[in-house]
Design goal:
Elements lengths: L7 E4 L4 H12 L7 E2 L11 H7 L5 E4 L7 H6 L1 H21 L1 E3 L6 E3 L2 E7 L26 H21 L3 E6 L1 E3 L8 H15 L3 E5 L5 E2 L1 E3 H14 L6 E3 L5 E2 H12 L4 E5 L27 H15 L2
Parallel strand pairs: 1-2, 1-3, 3-6, 6-7, 7-12, 8-11, 9-14
Antiparallel strand pairs: 4-5, 10-13
Helix pairs in contact: 1-7, 4-5, 6-8, 6-9, 8-9
Length: 317
């Protein structure tokens, strides 16, 4: 699909990932007038009326809006996280399915040609073997802390596949790994570590304490690479199976923290507190399916961290 000339709805466009996706679309020649970028203040997408209103004239939907945060936020708000993520996605996809534009001759009907949902690696079962393969997505229950968010997202995959079978609706589902980069909220691991290391350096502190043992691993993907994958899938992926979007590289939290300390110039001790929770022990994705539409991450972790740290130093007091 050539996205130029299409009217594209991007939910969550003002957010961390959404900002990068909009930039990627514009770099491909998509014009401002063809981008519909509703904010929460303009449209409450938890309501059916708002979902139907934003769908008028739309050719492609890239659904990024959602409610999420770090471990502390997920523990404190499981009910609203589940409801908001589920109801926004379900109502938006239903509105997209029903949306129709009359052709000039008044005979044929055309509507939303593709609906892309950004899901999460958190959807995988807590016991899924590594690296995560898309075929194992339904083999168990997600990690309990993130289950309300994860299950709500997985239900959108079920909806997409059901709509494809019954209505011929072209909906795809991406499983995004842990993303990082300029502009990410402070309660996620990388911006939190950067802020704490920078503050410790400025104050001349002798150590920074990090929760957990440092042994868990994560698959980190620079946000601009994630945006390229999302837009690439919108252009070139049309299958019902979900797709992992990640770096394919496992990074231990211990290595991440010590690398950030080195890059910000903090020479004190990075001290881990094993009495605090670690979270899921390991996460890594098999990203081979994403090669179908040409995705391969371009930014290695250290380069991405350097750019992220530079942004924090420039934009945070």
């Amino acid at each position: 699909m050539n996205l130029c000339g299409k009217k594209i709805l991007v939910t969550g466009a003002q957010g961390f990932v959404g900002t990068a996706v909009v930039a990627s679309l514009k770099s491909r020649g998509v014009l401002d007038e063809n981008l519909l970028l509703p904010s929460f203040g303009e449209y409450d997408l938890r309501t059916r009326e708002a979902c139907e209103e934003v769908m008028a004239g739309v050719d492609v939907v890239i659904h990024l809006a959602g409610v999420t945060g770090g471990v502390t936020f997920h523990r404190a708000h499981p009910g609203s996280i589940f409801y908001d993520n589920l109801i926004i996605g379900v109502r938006l996809m239903e509105a997209a399915r029903k949306a129709r534009l009359a052709e000039a001759d008044g005979e044929a009907q055309a509507g939303v040609k593709k609906f892309l949902t950004a899901g999460s690696m958190a959807e995988y079962p807590a016991t899924a073997p590594l690296p995560y393969k898309e075929e194992t997505l339904w083999d168990g229950y997600p990690d309990l802390v993130h289950a309300p968010y994860a299950v709500a997202k997985t239900m959108l995959l079920a909806q997409a596949q059901a709509y494809r079978v019954q209505y011929g609706f072209n909906a795809i589902h991406l499983l995004l790994t842990s993303m990082y980069g300029p502009g990410e909220k402070d309660d996620f691991v990388i911006p939190s570590l950067i802020r704490r290391m920078v503050d410790a350096k400025r104050r001349g502190e002798s150590f920074v304490e990090v929760w957990g043992t440092g042994k868990p691993t994560r698959d980190f993907l620079y946000v601009e690479d994630a945006a390229e994958a999302i837009v690439g899938a919108a252009e070139r992926y049309d299958s019902p199976e979900p797709v992992n979007i990640g770096s394919g590289i496992e990074t231990p939290i211990h290595a991440l923290a010590t690398t950030i300390a080195r890059l910000v110039g903090f020479s004190g001790e990075v001290r881990f507190d094993p009495t605090k929770p670690d979270g899921a022990p390991r996460r890594a994705a098999d990203t081979s399916r994403a090669r179908v539409f040409g995705f391969s991450p371009r930014t290695d972790l250290e380069s991405g961290l350097r750019m992220t740290i530079a942004w924090h130093l420039q934009n945070r007091s």
